[in-house]
Amino acid sequence: MASRLNPYLSFDGDARQAMEFYKEVFGGTLSLNTFGDLGGQAGGAEADKIMHSMLETASGFTLMGADNPPGMEFKAGNNYSVSVSGDDDAELRGYWEKLSADGTVAVPLEKQMWGDVFGMCTDKFGVPWMVDITQPQG
């Protein structure tokens, strides 16, 4: 799998509706994972909120999105990130080192509960980034 760059949108509780709308607009295949599915919330109202979604289209578009995590403030202007993902560990760690240098790390680049190595940072220009390293498809 080659590395890819795509937008990642954050929503204030309506990620499911928004991503289903984008599927109607662009077509493609939509995957939705809730906080409950991925172990982020054991129960309650947050369990059905979207922790991660991905729309992939026949045109080659990839759009990702999620509801703002519990406890994080949602405000316009912080509702997007640029996501870089793939399975080339060295390449993606190199991107992470450069993007996070002189920036702010929100989530350190480390193994997460869903199995990927993942991190979030804001670069020195104020652009938020997500780096996700998947296991090579063997």
From TrEMBL:
Q: Which domain of life is it from?
A: Bacteria
**Where do the Glyoxalase/fosfomycin resistance/dioxygenase domain residues begin and end?**
4-131
Q: Which InterPro entries would you find in this protein's record?
A: Glyas_Bleomycin-R_OHBP_Dase (IPR029068), Glyas_Fos-R_dOase_dom (IPR004360), PhnB-like (IPR028973)
List, alphabetically, the Gene3D superfamilies matched. Answer: 2,3-Dihydroxybiphenyl 1,2-Dioxygenase, domain 1
Q: Which CDD domains match?
A: PhnB_like (cd06588)
Question: What is the protein name given in its UniProt record?
Answer: VOC family protein
Per the UniProt entry, what species is this protein from, by scientific name? Streptomyces cavernicola
